[in-house]
């Protein structure tokens, strides 16, 4: 997956500029974005803080690890059942 130019913390800071009174056109021009990108970020990160995003990233990583553990155990379980069925 392509890594963007902006971190999530930077994106939140850019979105907060609109809340402080700058227009979307000014923000887009200043950061070299398209309006579509700005509004996509706004729909994805609306109202989120940097701390919430860090917590979400941590939870997603933990979830990924748990899914991997489940897949490994499920594969082992299936192999054991296959061996027992053959005996």
Could you explain the architecture of this structure?
This protein has 87 residues and is an all-alpha fold. 78% of the residues lie in helices and 0% in strands. It contains four helices and no strands. The protein has helices at 8-19, 24-31, 35-45, 50-86. The mean pLDDT is 90.
Q: Which features would summarize this protein structure in a list?
A:
single chain; 87 residues; mainly alpha; 4 helices; rod-shaped
Order of helices and strands: HHHH
Overall 3D form: rod-shaped
Q: What is the average per-residue confidence, as pLDDT, rounded to a whole number?
A: 90
- For the terminal residues, how far apart are their CA atoms? 46 Å
Strand content: under 5%
Question: How much helix, percentage-wise, in residues?
Answer: over 70%
Which spans of ≥5 residues are poorly predicted at pLDDT below 50?
none
Structural class: mainly alpha
Q: Count every helix, treating DSSP H or I runs of 4 or more residues as helices.
A: 4
Largest sheet: none
Backbone CA Rg: 22 Å
The total beta strand count reads: 0
Protein name: Transposase
Pfam families: HTH_Tnp_1 (PF01527)
Coiled coil: 49-76
InterPro entries: Homeodomain-like_sf (IPR009057), Transposase_8 (IPR002514), Transposase_8_domain (IPR052546)
Strand-helix topology:
Elements: H1 8-19, H2 24-31, H3 35-45, H4 50-86
């Amino acid at each position: 997956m392509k890594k963007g130019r902006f971190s999530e913390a930077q994106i939140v800071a850019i979105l907060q500029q609109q809340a402080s009174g700058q227009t979307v056109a000014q923000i887009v021009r200043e950061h070299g974005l398209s309006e579509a990108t700005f509004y996509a970020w706004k729909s994805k990160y609306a109202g989120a803080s940097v701390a919430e995003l860090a917590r979400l990233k941590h939870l997603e990583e933990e979830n990924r690890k748990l899914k991997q553990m489940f897949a490994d155990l499920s594969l082992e379980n299936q192999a054991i059942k296959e061996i027992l069925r053959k005996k």
